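Pilot study result, target chain (410 residues):
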Amino acid sequence: MKFDVLVLGGGIVGVSTAVHLRQRGLSVALVDRQAPGRETSYGNAGLIQREGVYPYAFPRDVPTLLRYARNRSPDVRYHPSALPTIAPFLARYWFHSAPVRHAAIARHYSTLIEHCVSEHRALIERAGAGGWLREGGWLKIFHRQGAWEAAQREAERWQREYGVPFVSLDARQLQRDEPSLSASLVGALRYTASDSVSDPGALVQAYAAYFQSLGGHVLIGDATTLAPQWTVKTDKGEIEGRHAVVAMGPWSDTVTRPLGYRLPLAVKRGYHMHYASQPGAKLNQPVLDAENGFLITPMTRGIRLTTGVERALRDSPRTPVQLDAVEPMARALYPLAQRVDDTPWMGARPCTPDMMPVIGPAPHHRDLWFAFGHAHHGLTLGPITGRLIAEMITGAPPCVDPGPFSAARF
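Predicted structure:
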């Protein structure tokens, strides 16, 4: 079986890439160890973050660093045993998070972010997946007046620099919009240009079904068997492609390292749990508790509670202590009922130290392409990444300058 392109990875980035390539007339095989949308793309918060022009930076103020060092913060935890391995990555992450460098990164990053909503909506329409789309933005809520005012100043900066709209809600307006939330909140910000989805995994599956309707092939296979120029083993036998795209999220290094690439890829792990709502309670949109580092959002399975960041090795045993820490806070914020899932779900976000994804050609192999490292914005940036990769492979003028995202920067 021969194809123009082998796309390795069935998450949002890989599926979006496969769709865009097939739309341009190339024969495409999408290869993963299981069906599309079953790994990291399944368990996120479902946000398409048009406001996310500044990727999440490493804190640099001493009080925050000391708080995290105690390893009891609800929003960030770490495995002490992982520190010797991840310390070099964290040092580079800290370096790139300096305000001047972070601002320069945002200027590049925003060129991707500005396309995130429009590219998703185009795929959603073609895939017939509008039932999972929520327009109108999402809420960031605050318990303290000072934190709310600081967030407003930050949102004003984003609006001034990048045209990101927002609406500030006082306590009364917030209660009118979300009457089931705690009345103790002082205010909120709504990022009105962003979208969200009620089932990220189902959305990826809908995109994959659309890809198949275009004549694309979805195969179960072992991406680590990739060999130049380019073959991979699948349940249908060995297949061959002129091009290969590595879009395997946190597992991308299992393919790139054997080929000689030592890209600085680490992970941020996170957990979620679904809950029923108490009788009469309703949540209309995603709500981020910015001060406590968790998010609750209405999903098809119930109210999804997602945690912050766990710094650990990708394959270390699960330690959902953050979920246990924030659940009482979430119950105080919104009337959650019983847990719906038997066990917490865990996923890993693939991260680079400069907070930008790796998108573009492999520096030392012809017709090999990289599309990974999107950290918190994998769902957000999946479709625009797929479009950009497809444009580069087919020689079309790219809609975004791909230079800043090249693997050659490392």
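One observation from the pilot: The chain has a mean pLDDT of 97. A full batch analysis is planned for the follow-on phase.
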